[in-house]
Fold this sequence. Notes:
Blueprint: H1 5-23, H2 26-42, H3 52-87, H4 97-114, E1 118-126, H5 128-135, H6 137-153, E2 160-165, E3 168-173, H7 178-194, E4 197-199, E5 202-204, E6 207-215, H8 221-244
Antiparallel strand pairs: 1-3, 1-6, 2-3, 4-5
Amino acid sequence: MRIRPFDALNKLRSTGEASQSAAGSSAGSVAASAAPRDAAQIMGVPENELTPNVQRALLTLMGEVDQLRKDTERLRKRVRELESLADHDVLLPVLNRRAFVREVSRAQALAERHHAPSALVYFDLNGFKDLNDSHGHAAGDAALHHVATMLTANLRETDSVGRLGGDEFGIVLTLTTVSQAETKAAELAALIRETDFDHDGVALRIDSAWGVHPIEGGVTVDAAMAQADAAMYARKQKLKAAANG
């Protein structure tokens, strides 16, 4: 049986009246009887002017409004997805350099406003080129995934991890002193060094060097990153000298 547009409004009214009879209260009566009239008033059309054409137009309009709401929510979800993609490294499940620098800036602002210093840790992989040369670039990618996994799995949700380029990683340890950051960096380096990762059925390992610098008031983002990088490089040179000596 074909349902006319006006039947939808009549059905709404009859449902309200049935609810009114079952409830038996004056409050229920007002709510049930007012619902369909309010719907017409909201659309700006008196009930006595709801001709068949107007009914069809109203139902079409309500359908279009509902579809617009769904489209808007779908677009919002897509925007959130694109924003997430824009912030993450193309290869690894960590932030890209641009997004990581933004996290350093936030930590620096926190230090400026609330005197709550954080710490920046710079990681660089040792022997990464040799690994690529010996086992291929796929092994190098596996090593990067291994390091990213070790770092993200052993930090707090309030901390941030980013790939700064090539085989370099950065970490923001929020509300952490330099001493605490050095202890944490040493723990992370040990985990990376002592945990195997698999490539084509072969167990491989990779080592790393790290450097720490405080994120505090009066220290710019560029300066903090440069100093952490310099501390990492100094440690790397020290390790090389110890290995050759």
